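Q: What structure does this chain adopt?
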Amino acid sequence: MPLLNLRDVAEGTPLRTGMLLRSAQPHRLTAADTDRLADLLGGSLEGLRLVADLRSEAERAGDDWTLLTDHGVRVTRLGTSGSPADLSALPPGIDLGDLYVLMLDHRTAWFASVVAEIADGLPALVHCAAGKDRTGLVVALVLDLVGVEHEVIVRDYAATATHLPQIITMLGLTASSPAEAVPSAEAVPTGAVPLGAVPAEAVLMTTAPSTAEAVPAMVGAISGLLDAPEAAIRTFLAALDARGGAERLLTAHGLTVGHVQRLRAALVG
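A:
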């Protein structure tokens, strides 16, 4: 299965290309995948300095970026840790946008640290499991920091929707539609981490549940969890604005003005 949900976040923007890429997790990475990466980087993997892996330890499957580390690319593990979350603690009827706001408020320092790593490591690739939630919010914060309009951020986030059927299969889920996904042991590709669950970001980014049985409860508890609805990222961006924007929020939690300047110099020029 190819490296899914891979793209340059500069697509459709005035930003400099080949500086910040995003994707889902690697699974049986092949030379064809690294060729696609090289194309996005201007023809050579030598231009990639950092892979920011946002997955928890439980989600990772060994040295799955070996084909890149062999080229000298640094892979930094930036996943959060914690105990499995208690779904009963979530507000009833919560939707994905509401969850994103909870993530923003509960993991602000983590977001700041990830953005700082990216600022110091460009050109970079950022990914989680699906490349949707953790990755989508980190990318949204970076784009807000460098002055990208919200409608462009929404478009980048929503582009994941076309990849979700393949991503669901890769993560060991089956569904007639993303919103109806349920775990299936038979669907887990050989060698894949059988997440059988929404990744760690799904419940305030604590450690992902270790069993597939957690999926129905999560999907039932959080509306839109296995989709990439524009409304969710719009809710997140509105909350970000209400908190003064990405720069004000993240610099209050460890991101420096120097990091912001480096991001703008690299992505905007």
